[in-house]
Amino acid sequence: MQKEKTYLDLLEFPIIHGRHLCNEVIVNCAIFEKKITISNDIQILTVVDKYNAFQNLLSKTSFESANVHVIVIDEYIKWISKIKSLKEYIEKEYDNLPSYILYVDGFDTLILQDILEPKKLLDFYNCKLLFNMETNFVHTGFPEPSLNYFDDLYYREASRSVILNEKKYGSRINAALNAGVFLGEKDYVLQILKETLDYMLEDYNKGYPYGCLDDQCLLRFVHNEHFDDISIDLFNKFCFWGSRLTFEDFSENNIFGIGYTQKYLNKYIDGKY
Fold this sequence. Notes:
The chain is of the alpha/beta class. The chain has one domain (2-268): Spore Coat Polysaccharide Biosynthesis Protein SpsA, Chain A. Helix content is 34%, strand content 19%. The protein has helices at 2-10, 19-28, 80-93, 118-125, 151-169, 186-200, 215-225, 265-272, and strands spanning 15-17, 36-37, 42-49, 63-65, 67-73, 100-104, 109-111, 129-134, 176-185, 230-232, 239-241. Strands 5-3-6-9-8-10 form a six-stranded mixed sheet, with helices on both faces. A three-stranded mixed sheet has the order 7-1-11. The chain has a two-stranded parallel sheet with strand order 2-4. The N and C termini lie far apart (38 Å).
């Protein structure tokens, strides 16, 4: 019963992210029957390679109204293709795009609810760019360019993030950016993509973050550098990231539902308002 309730609860989030999470929901819920409406102020983007484009979950979503564009490239090189393709597309189409960009990883993201007020979401976190969130600073498994390259990520940026989170949210929260979903102001998204690509193209011998091709590891540094303008969706206002543990751990400390993040919500609101 608890597991079945979890599936239904997940349908309340506008977006869910995570391959296992999405697969379980697709199998257990009739999600593609509902028509989804996305604000005309939002452009949805994703990047896929031509060989796997048919697996893109956006193509399975029934939109009542939405601006959706799938950027199809010949070969997807982790993860520089994502950053480079997004940057180039937004630059090229800048004047034709609406005010906000919503990026989603195409193969492990589902849009389940209407998203009608992008400014309200960003204003809640007082930011220009809002990323999906996960509860730790672990590495995604992408090979290191050199021995001990990511030490600064673990020992410098992780601790810096905790301090910055405490300043903003009033609690020492060990949570971090997830690069699979983000929503932001068009001009600021382009600015951050340019900066991120510049880091990627640098010589990795200069040390982290230079030459880092793992967009998530790199963007965690960029987040710390621009903490006042970039936020994580700590209270799952528009997105929820999950894994197999989402369906196995129903303890009080589980991030899902009223767990890990929700207990900080009142403190944040009290400090903000």
